[in-house]
């Protein structure tokens, strides 16, 4: 199976998990599900957050803010409400901001990432969306802003642009590349772009430098300036690895892991947004919810020396842009024009590409059914 190794003879009695959001909480639950009855320690100064709804339901005030917080009370774990600040891999001890030391038999790094910012040092007013507090702040600003500039035309940027347009603002998305093309491919990107433009969202292909103190707009490559009541940077994220300086674990890609979520250090695992999967000469970080879940399951099995049933990368993603839901199973981006597997009209339906990649475009379809369609296409091509 992908990422599997033969079961090892291990004696793990104390597992420390850094980060209690989707990856960390899933790893803890999976350890318990697989029979781990030893000591489980969660190191996180706050409750974990289920982040996908932040840019969708929370930003639109469609769900209670607290519903995205993750409850760890049923896991039977000690929750250390302090940030991890250091790691001695030789002594197998993690240090937290309160000065306490936490020994481990196995360590799971699920410290996530932080929003990438483009403001100058000390420049105030740049908005980002990464945490629940960010979502609350941004929701308030969108409801009180008549004009919004979004820097970055990826999934997050387009979801924020959709929310801003729905709130009634004039919205401009600025990106050096055509929006969504790098992540979805030309066909889907072009269709979603046209649908977003029909809602009033404007697109400008350019670099962007934040201007004003606090920020009042962006300067484009041609020297012109776009002013706005709110400027939101959606330009990616940075793996949260500063606390691991001196360990040899952080790289330019994040923390590199193998197909069993193991790092280069014995008994240290990394999962979720902080992790980058090495496959041959390729190292890739894919900070999506599905990967946080599958990597957590893989790590839990590997820690216990059990067979790993799950893949280290799960090719699944879901978004909703300009009123169109996009649920994809299979590798992205996709190239070329799709085959329409099921036609729902207005360009919507079940679309397929060789690979295979199956997309429910503007229609509701469960993930298991999409996976079944993908398996059927694979079997038919053999």
UniProtKB/TrEMBL annotation:
InterPro entries: FAD-oxidoreductase/Apoptosis (IPR050446), FAD/NAD-bd_sf (IPR036188), FAD/NAD-binding_dom (IPR023753). Keywords: FAD, Flavoprotein, Oxidoreductase. GO terms for molecular function: oxidoreductase activity, acting on NAD(P)H. The keyword Flavoprotein applies. Residues 14-296 form the FAD/NAD(P)-binding domain. GO terms for cellular component: cytoplasm. It comes from the Bacteria. PANTHER family: APOPTOSIS-INDUCING FACTOR 1, RIESKE DOMAIN-CONTAINING PROTEIN-RELATED. This is Ferredoxin reductase.
